[in-house]
């Protein structure tokens, strides 16, 4: 069983043309009142609902940056290591609006890309 970015099991209903969708974006407030303090953005998960429509779900606030970087496996360039699992480094930077407060970093391996 595979899951989307908010933990829903990926089923036929949660797909469009037999393809599921998962994504992450950081949503920042477009305009702020003068003198307002910016406390980062909101980390949003994009996935499909049971009717196959795109849904946005806020996962957390105070996010400055999210990066997902592929990691080279062995001596092969990333573009050539297309057999087997892929490895990614995920980094999340949290802010209070003035400076970076916390940095979380993890490495993940895919099962079936």
Strand content: over 45%
| Strand ordering within the main sheet | 1-2-3-4-5
- List unreliable stretches of 5+ residues: none
Please summarize the sheet with the most strands: 5 strands, antiparallel
Number of strands: 5
Q: What is the typical, i.e. mean, pLDDT?
A: 83
Helix fraction bin: under 10%
- The coarse overall form would be flat
Number of helices, where a helix is a run of at least 4 consecutive DSSP H or I residues: 0
How many structurally independent domains? 1
Distance between the termini: 14 Å
Q: Strand-and-helix sequence, N→C?
A: EEEEE
Radius of gyration: 17 Å
Which structural class matches the secondary elements?
Answer: mainly beta
Description:
With 113 residues, the protein is mainly β. It has one domain (22-29, 38-109). Helices cover 0% and strands 45% of the residues. The protein has no helices and 5 strands. It has a 5-stranded antiparallel sheet, with no helix packed on it.
How does the SSE layout of this entry go?
Elements: E1 22-27, E2 41-48, E3 54-71, E4 87-95, E5 100-109
Antiparallel strand pairs: 1-2, 2-3, 3-4, 4-5
Structure summary:
With 113 residues, the chain is mostly beta strands.
Keywords:
five-stranded antiparallel β-sheet, mainly beta, flat, 113 residues
């Amino acid at each position: 069983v595979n899951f989307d970015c908010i933990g829903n099991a990926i089923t036929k209903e949660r797909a469009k043309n037999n393809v599921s969708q998962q994504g992450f974006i950081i949503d920042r407030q477009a305009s702020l009142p003068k003198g307002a303090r910016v406390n980062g953005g909101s980390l949003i998960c994009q996935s499909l609902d049971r009717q196959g429509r795109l849904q946005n779900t806020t996962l957390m606030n105070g996010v400055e940056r999210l990066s997902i970087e592929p990691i080279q496996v062995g001596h092969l360039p990333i573009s050539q290591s297309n057999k087997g699992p892929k490895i990614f480094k995920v980094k999340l930077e949290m802010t209070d609006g003035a400076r970076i407060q916390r940095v979380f970093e993890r490495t993940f391996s895919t099962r079936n890309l």
